[in-house]
Amino acid sequence: MSVDNIRQEFDDLVSWATGTLQGDEVLLASMRGETSDFVRFNHASVRQAGSVQQQSLSVDLISGRNHAEGSVTLTGHAATDRPRVTALLDGLRAQRAVLPEDPYLLFATDGVDSERSVTGALPAAADAVDAVAAGATGNDFVGIYAAGSTYEAFGSSMGQRNWFDAATFNLDWSLHLRGDKATKNAYAGTNWDDQAFQSKLDWSVRELAALGRPPKSLPPGGYRSYLTPAAMQEIMGMLSWGGFGLRAHETRQTPLLRMVTEGASFAPSVSIAEDIVGGVAPDFQSAGFCRPAAVSLITDGVFDSHLVSPRSAQEYGVATNGAEDHEYPLAIAMDPGSLPAGGVLDALGTGLYIGNLWYLNFSDRTACRTTGMTRFGTFWVEGGEIVAPIEVLRFDDTAYNLLGDRLEGLTDTAETILDSSTYEHRSMESLRLPGALVSEMTFTL
Fold first, then answer.
1. Residue 206 domain-assigned (yes or no)
2. 431 assigned to some structural domain
3. What contacts 215, CB < 8 A, 6 or more positions away?
4. Does residue 233 sit in the same domain as residue 200?
5. Same domain flag for 416 and 322
6. 177-183 — which CB contacts under 8 Å span 24+ positions?
């Protein structure tokens, strides 16, 4: 089924549901769906292949300040979907009758329509398979390829309609040596390029060869380190966990508390934004509010502005900028620096090349201090050359160090990273991050 047909069916369904409303009821409806191909690899061969087409409808049924929310899976056939929606609405009315008023309810009433598509040049699934088979021959390539269209729509009984769709691919893989020895990489975006994929795969092969050397065990301490964009993704994920939302700031639960209360800052080269126009997330949200093209979060190392959901806007008396209730960035972007991406090993000199991090958590949330483990492609480098893999290390450090006074440089290019999550549906979150060279990163175990 084409995206245009899906969009028309959503419009028809909302219009029909509007005609069934009772009294002063208001209907807010959001649809999310995808048409995706999935291919799973093992030993560089296809082990499983298939496709998914799915749609789900979420409804908020409002009367005054009382409301109830629910969802239903759609089939794309009106004869099946309309009775499902009728049953959902009847159930929501029954729930709403016993629910208290919601003092923070806020939804769009000005009817701003929008339409946006992120188009791309995606390979056919067979061509992606051929590229993997040709490039990974002789290696234990294990991974999953997911590609296709994801889409989201909003419609209200007041006539508002919003639509977004994106064509994306995401190839997430590991090359396994033996046991738990593996290197991890990914290639994602909207326009597939054989040369770009092969370049990433070549680096994985280079890392795999280094993993075959005897590992080096390092004592706890501080080490000069380079964090790849993939490692920076984990750091940024923790920073985004309450770092930019208005509610977290107002309740003093933000990890950036020292930045807003004590004047702490990152390095002047650090600027972070919610870049909706540069990502693959919709430019509207589930209460019907549109998102700006970009929201500056950190500018020149200093906190700039919050992500504000409608509920926070209502609670704290400010304007919303279209964030969802969790106030977590969906398309975060960090400005690149001037460190040549092709010369990071030379710039590192002697120290740690950190390919991946995992198991991150806050060790001191108010100080923006995080602990976690190295994972996969982490190596000891001497004289700009990879010498040996290292035994697993635990770090414990604060972003005020890693992105502040110990930051020596950010790479001159930023890598696009699409969230590879497929829980319930393919994620529409993205990041655009450079690598970071730091003079010292603290390791405790």
1. yes
2. yes
3. 388, 389, 390, 391
4. no
5. yes
6. 177/140, 177/208, 177/211, 177/212, 181/211, 181/212, 181/389, 182/142, 182/211, 182/376, 183/207, 183/208, 183/211, 183/355, 183/376, 183/377
Q: How many other CB atoms are there within 10 angstroms of residue 294's CB atom? A: 15
Ramachandran area for residue 44 (φ above 0: left; ψ -120 to 50: alpha; else beta): left
Angle subtended by helix axes 78-96 and 3-18, to nearest 10 = 40
| E strand intervals along 210-313 | 221-227, 272-275, 294-299, 302-303
Q: Domain total for the chain?
A: 2
Tokens standing for residue 9: 């069916």
Residues of the domain holding 379: 221-443
Opening angle at CA 47, ends 45 and 51, nearest 5: 115
Please report, in tens digits, the pLDDT of each residue of the chain (445 residues total). 688 889 999 999 999 999 999 999 999 999 999 999 999 999 999 999 999 999 999 999 999 999 999 999 999 999 999 999 999 999 999 999 999 999 999 999 998 999 999 998 898 889 999 999 898 888 999 999 999 999 999 999 999 999 999 999 999 999 999 888 899 999 999 999 999 999 999 999 999 999 999 999 999 999 999 999 999 999 999 999 999 999 999 999 999 999 999 999 999 999 999 999 999 999 999 999 999 999 999 999 999 999 999 999 999 999 999 999 999 999 999 999 999 999 999 999 999 999 999 999 999 999 999 999 998 889 999 999 999 999 999 999 999 999 999 999 999 999 999 999 998 999 999 999 999 999 999 999 8
Backbone angles phi, psi at 409, to 5 degrees: 180, 155
| 54 and 137 both lie in a single domain | yes
Choose the final residue of a domain: 211, 246, 281: 211
- pTM to 2 decimals? 0.94
| Contact residues for 176 (Cβ-Cβ < 8 A; gap 6+) | 140, 142, 182
Q: How far is CA 273 from the centre of its chain?
A: 13
DSSP output for 36-60: EEEEEEETTEEEEEEEEEEEEEEEE
